[in-house]
Amino acid sequence: MKKVIVLIGPNGVGKTTTAKAIIDLKSRSAMVDSDWCRIMNPFMFTDTTRQTVTENIFCLIHNYLLNQEIDTVVFTHSWHGERKVIYDNVMARLRDTGIAFEERIIVLKCSLEENLRRLVEDRRDEERIKRGIKNTFSFYNDYKYPCIDTTELNPDAIAQKILDIVEI
User: What range does the domain containing 18 cover?
Assistant: First the structure.
């Protein structure tokens, strides 16, 4: 059965970097980064942009699930703010297509010091860093999905832990 591995976690925790490492380790895989699906200037959550982002994410994951040469889709996403509603809509639509797939959600976390270091290394501006720490750093603490502390791990080690969890 096809798998959709969903990586969630705070801004800057390393979801995209980890997803790329999974793709390098796992053949017959593809990656969908939700950031790519909402790059607009200016970006605001309006009904129109919400619909566009939802459609972008759905179409990319759906097309990969339809591809006979792809067994695993790695999807990076954040659930804070309005993003969880978008995610829920996308997954409901994917289930309605009748394509058989298993959804596996993994939470990535790291220490506050490491998260700040990564955000600075990503060249995020100070305001965005403050907002990200305030709105996303502790947001994922209450989810009961498997969680990996990425603080002391390199992307390949994190990717391997994820593959072990999802038993690929």
Answer: 2-166
Number of structural domains, the chain? 1
C-alpha torsion angle, residues 73, 2, 95, 92 (rounded to 10): -30
Q: Is residue 66 a contact partner of residue 34, using CB atoms and an 8 Å limit?
A: no
- The DSSP call for residue 140 is G
Q: Residue 99 above 90 pLDDT? A: yes
φ/ψ of 81, rounded to 5, equals 60, -135
Helical spans, DSSP H, in 12-121: 15-25, 47-66, 83-96, 112-121
Q: Is the pLDDT at 87 greater than 80, yes or no?
A: yes
Q: For the chain, give the mean pLDDT.
A: 92
Whole-angstrom CA distances from 125 to 35, 116, 119, 130 are: 17, 11, 9, 9
For the chain, first and last CA: distance in Å? 11
The CATH number of residue 155's host domain is 3.40.50.300
What pairing do the DSSP bridges indicate for beta strands 29-33 and 72-76? parallel
Asked if the model's pLDDT at residue 168 lies above 90, the reply is no
Cis peptide before 42 (omega within 30 of 0): yes
The pTM assigned to this predicted structure is: 0.92
